[in-house]
Amino acid sequence: MANPAEVDGDHRARLSVLMDAAEVSEYLGVPTGTLANWRYQHRGPAFIRVGRHVRYRAEDVGQWLAHRAAGGEFDDPGRPAFRVAGR
Fold first, then answer.
1. Which structural domains are found in the chain, ordered by start?
2. CA angle 34, 82, 32 (to 5 degrees)
3. DSSP 3-state assignment of 56?
4. Distance CA 16, CA 11 (A)
5. Helix or strand or coil: residue 3?
6. What is the DSSP pairing of strand 53-57 with strand 18-20?
7. Residues 6 or more apart from 10 whose CB is under 8 A from it?
8. What are phi and psi of 59, to 5 degrees?
C-alpha cells in the first residue's frame, strides 16, 4: 500500500472524503441528534463505523440529498434503504 504522502493527484481525487457527524449536521442544517435518530431508524445518508466513530462519505451524503431533491421520501416503500456501508 502506498504511503498517503506519496499518493499522486489522480489517485487522491478518487479517495472518499469522510465527514464526521458534526460536519454532516452543519452541512445539512440538522442537529447531530437527528442524524443519530436517522442512523437508528436506517434513514438518512449511509454511514460507516470506523471503530466506535461514525463517518459519512461525502458522495453518500450528496446522493442522499439528490434523492431527496428528486421527490424521494423517508418512508417511500420503493426506495432502497440507505444502510451502513458494507452491510
1. 15-87 (1.10.1660)
2. 15
3. strand
4. 10
5. coil
6. antiparallel
7. none
8. -70, -30
Per-residue pLDDT of the chain (87 residues; tens, 9 = 90+): 555 555 565 555 566 789 999 999 999 999 999 999 999 999 999 999 999 999 999 999 999 999 988 776 554 444 555 555 554
C-alpha cell at 75: 418512508
Residue 49's pLDDT is 94
* Euclidean distance between CA atoms 72 and 76, whole angstroms: 7
- Supply 76's cell numbers: 417511500
Single-letter code of the amino acid located at 86: G
Helix axes 21-28, 58-69, angle to 10 degrees: 30
Contact status, residue 61 vs residue 45, Cβ threshold 8 Å: yes
CA-wise closest residue to 45 among 66, 14, 16: 66
